[in-house]
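Supplementary Methods. Inverse-folding protocol.

Structures were first reduced to a discrete structure-token string of length 251. This string, shown here, constituted the complete conditioning input.
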């Protein structure tokens, strides 16, 4: 049976890769709400959404540090841009530190988008890409670019001390930057990124630690901390409620 909940994720233009992780959409085409569990993934999402219950609106999600049960209303269509942390300083209109685990609604004409832009995902992708290209900074602090390159390349497994040394940026300054821009510490962000990479393993039924967890107990504890359930239950993904896990399994 074809699912009434569909989604799509596209990689951004290579010129945007330091700032944007993906541009995507999800659509609950059913006449009933879709119950989902949102889990931390280290992304900052800009949503453009409409449903039968709610007119067009735009909102910016802060980073998540814990799982949350959410209900997507019937016939909800949402297009979105998923940003990497570097975009907060250079692309987005504000720090997101003030709405950790929450969201901020933006004006309905933000970046010149409207409800009509949700009629065609391909057209939305092109328009979003064109807008983002105009916002690219002329220069980016080399320390920050290096830091995030290292974090992603090592799946969040490199220590704060080593990241600081390799990026030539003091750990104190780094943590101040993370707190002011994102609302959490570098160490917490790295844990979230390691969790997200572990989800790819869980999605394939690999339920033992493959990253730098101390042991199986530590692995289970961290997975449960961020998802709310142990790896075995997470892998079952009953009713496809962990949407991110479904996406990873389909990769």
């Amino acid at each position: 049976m074809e699912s009434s909940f569909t989604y799509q994720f596209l990689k951004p233009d290579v010129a945007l890769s330091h700032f944007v992780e993906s541009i995507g959409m999800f659509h609950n085409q059913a006449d009933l709400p879709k119950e989902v569990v949102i889990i931390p993934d280290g992304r900052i999402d800009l949503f453009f959404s409409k449903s039968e219950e709610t007119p067009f609106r735009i909102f910016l999600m802060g980073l998540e540090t814990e799982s949350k049960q959410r209900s997507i209303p019937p016939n909800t269509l949402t297009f979105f841009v998923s940003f990497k942390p570097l975009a907060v300083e250079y692309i987005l209109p504000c720090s997101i530190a003030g709405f950790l685990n929450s969201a901020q609604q933006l004006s309905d004409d933000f970046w010149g988008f409207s409800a009509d832009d949700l009629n065609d995902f391909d057209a939305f992708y092109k328009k979003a890409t064109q807008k983002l290209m105009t916002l690219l900074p002329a220069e980016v602090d080399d320390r920050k670019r290096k830091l995030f390159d290292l974090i992603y390349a090592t799946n969040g497994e490199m220590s704060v001390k080593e990241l600081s040394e390799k990026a030539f940026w003091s750990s104190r300054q780094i943590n101040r930057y993370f707190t002011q821009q994102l609302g959490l510490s570098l160490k917490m962000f790295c844990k979230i990124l390691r969790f997200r990479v572990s989800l790819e393993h869980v999605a394939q039924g690999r339920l033992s630690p493959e990253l730098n967890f101390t042991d199986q107990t530590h692995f289970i504890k961290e997975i449960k901390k961020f998802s709310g359930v142990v790896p075995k239950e997470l892998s079952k993904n009953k009713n496809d409620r962990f949407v991110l896990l479904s996406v990873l399994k389909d990769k």
